[in-house]
Automatic annotation (TrEMBL):
Protein origin, superkingdom: Eukaryota
Keywords: Calcium, Endoplasmic reticulum, Glycoprotein, Glycosidase, Hydrolase, Metal-binding, Signal
Name of the featured protein: alpha-1,2-Mannosidase
EC number: 3.2.1.-
Binding site for Ca(2+): T474
Gene3D superfamilies the UniProt entry points to: 1.50.10.10
Lineage, uppermost ranks: Eukaryota, Viridiplantae, Streptophyta, Embryophyta, Tracheophyta
Cofactor(s), by name: Ca(2+)
Amino acid sequence: MPSRRSGTPAFVLLLLVISLSFCTSSSELDSRWAAKKLEMRDKVREMFYHAYENYMTYAFPHDELKPLTKSYTDSLSELGNLKLEHLPTDYSGSALTLIESLSSLVIMGNNTEFERAVGWLSKNLSFDVDARVNLFECNIRVLGGLVSAHILASDSKNRLIQGSYDNELLGLAEDLGRRFLPAFDTPTGLPYAWVNLKYGVMEGETTETSTSGCGSLILEMGALSRLTGDPRYEFAALRALRKLWSMRSSLNLFGTTLDVMTGEWIEHSSGIGAGVDSFYEYLVKAHILFGKDDYWRMFQSAYLAVQKYFRHGSWYHEADMRSGRATYWQLTSLQAFWPGLQVLVGDVRAANSSHREFFSVWEKYGVLPERYLLDYQTVHPTEKYYPLRPELAESTFYLYHATKDPFYIEVGEAIVNSLNFYTKVEGGFASIRDVTTMQREDHQHSFFLAETCKYLYLLFDDSFLAGRNYVFTTEGHPLPVLSDWHDRLPEAYIPSNWTYVKSRMSMERASAMSLQVCPATSLNLGEGQQAIESVCHVVDARGDHRCLRDEECGVDATSCRSRSCSIAGYCGLWLLV
């Protein structure tokens, strides 16, 4: 982390945010906290290897482990309701958990096991199988895992592969990418949700997909194009993303599900959770990874709309994309990624507020239920499960490294202790079927090793990231930020706290988000100046909030709504009263 002298203003470029040079910082933790971090790091490493070794013993080379019965499930094919007995007799799974574990092995310093795993995959993995898979899941888990591992394996600085590595993982990734392309052959360019790896899109395939399903492909497929020189993968993902963006409402909101043939919305209600979550995530991360300003402009509009129409205090409900009216007052566990995303754009205060609410629900049950009813303050009657999801750990990781607040170390410790107490079994880590009874379910998802353990480990030991600049995909696979991949690097801004930009005719106030800088929340302010409280916050022209016209009023820090000038001559949210 970069050092700062007391009272010295400092602004951090968005590009540097992802390498953990966040907007706020503090002095290093004292020796007691340093010792606690080492202790917790070792506990997380033990968790990872307990899960990994049981998978290798009882489930490999199949997809995922069933820890209670010490058996396996080929979940990648089951995503398409394809029964195991319908597969070829020589089908032995896709080794999904092994692929998902590759970068975690590197982060935890086990280069020997990483090399062994790469060698096995290079010789044995094949996608020439009659299997119907979910495009989104296969993209983020398998393609993302292979691309990330290839980059780690071929980086001479890492010296991970002692023998000869001849880009075998990249070859596998390219083969898989080619098998994805038939899914994009639609009138709209929006891809089918399901594709057969051997035969493409099958007759009678469903045309319904989700916003995440067609809007969260650009990182993995874009990286594949940059590595292979074949533009087809990035073009297909970008065409789908642009079509999806054109379908937004006049409020810059999106629905949850749509028809890929007609481009019409099916479900108009949405939020920041299931079916939509990674769409927002990939807009900002694609901007960081590829340098296109179009991604940032899309994210800015979408983020402001979320803050305006979904946020209620520290919570986020769901709303109708056409009217902005609230539809469902509920928390979903996937929403817990949002504070981490807010940290990446510098909205640390808002991130902290929401994170504490998510953690309060975790403390209430011991884990985070899949769905929690905000209006009744209770768990959803049918979605009571916890499948070892990583989102709360992910946001805790980002917030700790943004603030160095030891509270987040305590949160991480609580998460680790809960996982060991409630979900650890002899054969691995089991999901929770019902958070009210802590009844276990016989499934250890691959993302437990790809994300949950990884983010907890990095919370306590981020040495892997020292001097490096990575974007983590929605499945936790690291992709390096490389200047060679950028069409144009994001521009640097060095504004003062009074965030003005010059136009030819006048001085116009601008938000931190529009300038792509972190909000100045900790500066020594001059007399009459107001602190910038969030990325959308634009302060009023005068410190006493007096005004003569609306143009002298700013944007509210919490709701991101424009303030207006009252008849009495004061700025406020008068239009909402």
